[in-house]
Amino acid sequence: MTKPSSLYDSVIELFQQEGWQYAPVEGREIIRSGFEAQHTRVNVHVQIFAPMQALSVVSESDWKSSDQQKRVKLAELAMRVNRELTVGNFEMDWEQGQLVFRVTNLFPEGKVALSIIKGMVHTVISEMDRIAAIESQIHLAEGTDLLRLNLPILLSREDLLPAVPDQPDS
């Protein structure tokens, strides 16, 4: 790999400041990491697209399915959740039967706010964690139980959502 971009250096700086464990991907401006969230462990990768000054942060579900009906339910889940999102989006790797959540930002040359990158990382972790309980119900259901899963009702259940951490008063 040639000299790392300043954006890549900023990502490494942030992960080191926060004490987050990470592993660089050899020969690419990508790092991989994992975070324990409320419902699940969330795998994350951060990729830099230096020519565009773009940073993409992606969380990946641990669940994968080759079952066609489960893939359809997962795609429906992603679609329904995406309708309510302001930042980022769920995507489905159809071949793997796996959900991912992606958020991307463009940065002006030389003006990288670590707080923005930190927010992006927190967003992908919390969004993947937010749907983990519902996603697990899809993966664990079989036959008619799978067909009967009502995603709008499941998405409205607050008991399935992770608790919002207390925020310090500003």
Structural overview:
This protein is α+β, with helices and mostly antiparallel strands and 170 residues long. The protein contains five helices and six strands. It has helices at 6-18, 68-82, 114-140, 143-148, 151-156; strands at 23-24, 30-36, 41-49, 54-60, 89-93, 98-106. A six-stranded antiparallel beta sheet has the order 1-2-3-4-6-5. α2 packs antiparallel against α3. The radius of gyration is 17 Å and the shape is elongated. The termini are far apart. The mean pLDDT is 91.
Class from secondary-structure proportions = alpha+beta
Q: Provide the residue-averaged pLDDT.
A: 91
What about the largest sheet? 6 strands, antiparallel
* Rg for CA atoms: 17 Å
Strand order of the largest sheet: 1-2-3-4-6-5
Shape: elongated
Keywords:
elongated, 6 strands, six-stranded antiparallel β-sheet, alpha+beta, 39% helix, 170 residues
In brief:
The chain is α+β, with helices and mostly antiparallel strands and 170 residues long. 39% of the residues lie in helices and 23% in strands. The protein has helices at 6-18, 68-82, 114-140, 143-148, 151-156, and strands at residues 23-24, 30-36, 41-49, 54-60, 89-93, 98-106.
